[in-house]
Write a structure and sequence with these properties.
CATH architecture of the largest domain: Alpha-Beta Complex
CATH superfamily of the largest domain: Medium-chain alcohol dehydrogenases, catalytic domain
Number of strands: 15
Structural class: alpha/beta
CATH topology of the largest domain: Quinone Oxidoreductase, Chain A, domain 1
Radius of gyration: 20 Å
CATH class of the largest domain: Alpha Beta
Distance between the termini: 12 Å
Order of helices and strands: EEEHEEHEEHHEHEHEHEHEHEHEHE
Number of domains: 2
Strand content: 15-25%
């Protein structure tokens, strides 16, 4: 079977190789992948920024979707033909995260999904909602679950809450869809008026161009009557965190997810004085994934895919991720 491998860091060094077909152990199934999707973590992994000491060769990309083509002798959860998605962390089934569970992430500690076939423990898979294509389903395991954990689990999002979303990448767009579904009021930022217009068609209540309005935190306060928002999906990291703290309400919730905005600093006194709850989000458990998938199925939510690349063009997909030109998710088709 064909698989991409990281042997040397750099997009240009990502290579296709031939690997042996996986053989399932007693509690495993073999999944034939039809699609894999990109996250910023995957780009950092390929470039050697996320973990310079990661084991190599490594199959990249944590997120994928496919069908079960073979099952082990003790498998009871799945049958041949089932459409499935591997969970981001294979051993985080439920409960609190711990170091052991965190060391079972696909596309990092374990081989990822940018390959034609993979063997997975039966407990590490989730069924695909029936109305989704493989390309759409492949976007859910990391970005979707991260947004779900940030707002619905950590944030306990409620109707009428005010939510600030930074940027228009995969996590932020999923968060926009989930917030709208609950009946929350949303504010979303971008440097592109075209992307803000697209966010508006998805139901964003307010949009802010942070390039033309660098003091976007002040505009958020204006839009909320100086009160501030209840929740912030903070994907910028150190480069945006202080502005996020400025415009969250007293006692509000900031879900810290990404590092897209680079370096910066913040005053911890402002966290104390506003009693802000700062919560790191590291994707989520299989149970969170299942709960999210059930809601997506019931509400007929469709992930936003900006472009689908062929398997041989995975490097071009990574270059698009690096450019920041995408809106929502980027997907790579796998197999025929």
């Amino acid at each position: 079977m064909r698989a991409y491998e990281i042997n040397e860091f750099g997009i240009e060094n990502l290579s296709i190789t031939e690997r042996k077909m996986p053989v399932p152990q007693a509690n495993e199934v073999v999944v034939k992948f039809h699609a894999a999707s990109l996250n910023f973590r995957d780009l950092m992994m390929v470039k050697g920024v996320y973990d310079p000491e990661v084991r190599r060769p490594l199959v990249p990309f944590s997120d994928g979707a496919g069908e079960v083509v073979e099952i082990g002798s003790e498998v009871t959860r799945w049958k041949v033909g089932d459409r499935v998605m591997p969970a981001f962390m294979q051993d985080w089934i439920d409960g609190a995260i711990d170091y052991r569970k965190a060391k079972t992430a696909l596309g990092g500690d374990l081989d990822g999904c940018l390959r034609e076939y993979g063997a997975f423990r039966e407990a590490g898979l989730v069924p695909i909602p029936g109305h989704l294509t493989y390309e759409e389903a492949a976007t859910l395991p990391c970005a979707g679950v991260t947004a779900w954990n940030a707002l619905r689990v950590s944030g306990k999002l409620a109707k009428g809450d005010k939510v600030l979303l930074l940027g228009t990448g995969g996590v932020s767009i999923f968060a926009l869809q989930f917030a709208k579904n609950v009946g929350a009021e949303t504010i979303i930022t971008s440097s592109s008026d075209d992307k803000l217009e697209m966010a508006g068609t998805l139901g964003a209540t307010h949009t802010i161009n942070y390039k033309t309005n660098p003091d976007w935190d002040e505009e958020v306060l204006e839009l909320t009557g100086k009160r501030g928002v209840d929740h912030i999906v903070e994907v910028g990291g150190a480069g945006t965190l202080q502005k996020s703290i400025n415009c969250v309400r007293m006692g509000g919730h900031i879900a810290v997810i990404g590092v897209l905005a680079g370096k910066g600093g913040f005053d911890p006194i402002s966290i104390l004085m506003k009693a802000v709850r700062l919560q790191g989000i590291f994707v989520g458990s299989r149970v969170m994934f299942e709960d999210m998938a059930e809601m997506i199925r019931n509400e007929y939510i469709k992930p936003v895919v900006t472009k689908v690349f062929e398997f041989d063009d995975a490097r071009e997909a990574l270059s698009m991720m690096e450019s920041g030109d995408h809106f929502g998710k980027i997907v790579v088709k796998v197999g025929g």
